[in-house]
Amino acid sequence: LNCAILAPECGPDTPEFELFVKEVAREMTVKAGQKCTAIRRAIVPRQHLDAVASALRARLAKVVVGDPAVDGVRMGALASHAQLADVAERVALLRQGAELVCGGESPQTVGEGTADGAFFAPTLLLCKQPLTTDAVHDIEAFGPVSTLMPYDGIDEAVALAARGQGSLVATLVTREPAVAAQVIPQMAAWH
Q1: Beta strands in the chain (DSSP E)
Q2: What is the pLDDT of residue 98?
Q3: pTM
Q4: How buried is 74 (Cβ within 10 angstroms: 0-12 exposed, 13-18 middle, 19+ buried)?
Q5: pLDDT recorded at residue 191
C-alpha cells in the first residue's frame, strides 16, 4: 500500500511539515480517494504524531463534500453504493487495529440530489502499534481513507513502508539530503 513518510527533522514549524499535511489531505480527497496512487499510510515520527493528527483533522474538517458542480465543494461521491459499502467494510476492519481520528461516517453534503449519493467522509485513522498490526499494511479502503502510523527512527519508518508489500508510489518528505540518500535506495526495491 502506498505511503508517505515525514522525516524526523520536519517538525510543525517547517514548510515541509505543512507540505506533508497538505499532500496527505489532498490525496485523500481528490477523486474521493479512489485512485491507485493515493496515500493509504502516513508514516510520521512519534514526536510529531499529535501535531500531524491535529493538522490533518483541521484540514479535513474544512473539506466540503457534495455535488462537485456546486461552488466550494472539494470532494464528490464514491463511484457507487457498492463501493461505499466496500469502503465502510474495510474501514471497520482497519478499526480493529486502529482508532478513528476523524471521519468514518456519512458526511453532510452540499447540492441538490446528494442525499442518496455514495458519499463517505474523509477518514483518518491512527494505528499506534504499526509494527505488530498487519491489517493497516494489508487492507486498502479504496476511498478517502488514510492511516497515521508513528515510528521511532528512520530505519523503522523504512521497515513500516516495506510492510505494505510494495506499492505504486511512496513519498518521502525531508529537508536532509543524507536522509533521502539513506531512505530512497532502501524503498526502491518495493516500488
Answers
A1: 3-6, 41-45, 65-66, 99-102, 109-110, 123-126, 145-151, 170-173
A2: 98
A3: 0.96
A4: middle
A5: 81
**Cell numbers found for residue 91:** 474501514
What cell numbers appear for 137 in the block? 499494511
Q: What is the 3-state secondary structure (H, E, C) of the chain?
A: CCEEEECCCCCCCCHHHHHHHHHHHHHHHHHHHCCCCCCCEEEEEHHHHHHHHHHHHHHHHCCCEECCCCCCCCECCCCCHHHHHHHHHHHHHHCCCCEEEECCCCCCEECCCCCCCCCCCCEEEECCCCCCCCHHHHCCCCCCEEEEEEECCHHHHHHHHHCCCCCCCEEEECCCHHHHHHHHHHHHCCC
